């Protein structure tokens, strides 16, 4: 947090996020995520968000659509009716900020630990892989011990608790 502060990143107050991840019924962990739509229901401060992500270059580079939903349980039922299945529950405490044009999140994920997540919007003519390498260099410039993962939280949680999804 101090290294981020020294670079002008002001982190928000902590928020608790309760996410339920969903996958198409025919998809299984171990299969490629590229080109496959995945859904998420998130509750934060009583607000429910529905998100669909479709990985395009790798599972970290996604087309994303998000909207507020009034009723989490009804959206859950709608996802089941569309043949999505719940995979894992991801509960975390998040603090967010901006580092220039990059979004920064400091996440404490229940069952996994602490993560620094950087995200940037990528234009259609840009390489997602190149942007990921740039974001990795930014994190390493903080001068703190980090380990880069190319897995999403749901995959990491599934790896530590295979019965979870």
Question: How do the helices and strands line up, and which of them pair or pack?
Answer:
Layout: H1 2-6, E1 15-24, E2 38-44, E3 47-55, E4 62-69, H2 72-81, E5 84-99, E6 102-109, E7 113-119, H3 128-140, H4 153-160
Antiparallel strand pairs: 1-2, 1-5, 2-3, 3-4, 5-6, 6-7
Organism: Micromonospora echinaurantiaca
Protein name: Adenylate cyclase, class 2
Domain CYTH: 40-143
> Which fold name is given in CATH as the topology?
Hypothetical Protein Pfu-838710-001
Secondary structure class reads alpha+beta
Biggest beta sheet summary: 7 strands, antiparallel
The portion of residues forming beta strands comes to 35-45%
Overall body shape: globular
What's the architecture, going by CATH?
A: Beta Barrel
Strand order of the largest sheet: 4-3-2-1-5-6-7
* Domains (count): 1
Number of strands: 7
Radius of gyration from CA coordinates: 16 Å
Order of helices and strands: HEEEEHEEEHH
Q: What is the helical fraction, as a range of percent?
A: 10-25%
CATH superfamily: Hypothetical Protein Pfu-838710-001
Question: How many angstroms does the end-to-end distance come to?
Answer: 32 Å
In short:
By secondary structure, the chain is an alpha+beta fold. The chain has one domain: Hypothetical Protein Pfu-838710-001 (Beta Barrel). It is 22% helix and 39% strand.
Describe the structure using short key phrases.
22% helix; globular; Hypothetical Protein Pfu-838710-001; 165 residues; alpha+beta
Structure, explained:
This is Adenylate cyclase, class 2. There is one protein chain. The chain has 165 residues and is α+β, with helices and mostly antiparallel strands. It has helices spanning 2-6, 72-81, 128-140, 153-160; strands spanning 15-24, 38-44, 47-55, 62-69, 84-99, 102-109, 113-119. It has one domain (2-160): Hypothetical Protein Pfu-838710-001 (Beta Barrel), CATH 2.40.320. The protein contains four helices and seven strands, in the order αββββαβββαα. A hairpin with a 3-residue loop joins strand 6 (102-109) and strand 7. The protein is globular.
